[in-house]
Amino acid sequence: MKFRLLFLLFISTLVLTAQDNGEDQLGSWHMYFGTNKLSDKYSLHTEAQLRYYENGKNFNQLLLRTGINYHINPNAIATLGYGHITTDGSFEEFPNETNSIEHRIFEQFILKNKVWEFNFEHRYRLEQRFIDFGDRNDTQHRARYRLQVTLPLTDIFFLNFYDEIFLNLQDQVFGQNRLYGALGINVTHNLSTQLGYLKNHFPTAHYDRLQIGVFYNPDLRKLFSKKEQS
């Protein structure tokens, strides 16, 4: 009898743990972004994000993304890219699902403008999502719009804010909204870091996340020109 009670208690603990979506925890996102200049018109986007339900622990999501950027002019960039995403099954985006692996294709267009000292960036993105839940596959489509505002404080320090809305192109239209604010530091002319806070709203859940981001944008044009000459 005691063994049965202990076994039932053990099973119930596992179930409760699996159903915990981390909403009540202060989680963290650890991020790297790179724009690697290949020529005057083309650059390579590189990105890696490791997301946790708690600060630095309790795995939520791994996101790896890359793409080719075409720089129409200094204020307009078009991108075609691919993402590989591994997601824990208790995350609110896919309620009542198992762990998933997603292959994502995305098309993106960025417009930039400046008003006084404020730098504005409008990012429009379409995503085709091919998701493997283990026992079944699903294809979803989504549109995203992000308005970002950057305010330089000095040559070194700056503030960065954005709001991004996610709209599903099937089923329930509203997917999520992300509101973000951060303090940024320009380490060198092509390396910066940001420490910020993200409020992530889903239809039935809300997440608070610390964000640590590193942005590295090397100019590889000289490297490629040397290879061509050799």
From TrEMBL:
Residues 1-18 form the signal peptide. It holds the Pfam family DUF2490. InterPro entries: DUF2490. The lineage of its organism: Bacteria, Pseudomonadati, Bacteroidota, Flavobacteriia, Flavobacteriales. It comes from the Bacteria. This is DUF2490 domain-containing protein. Keywords: Signal.
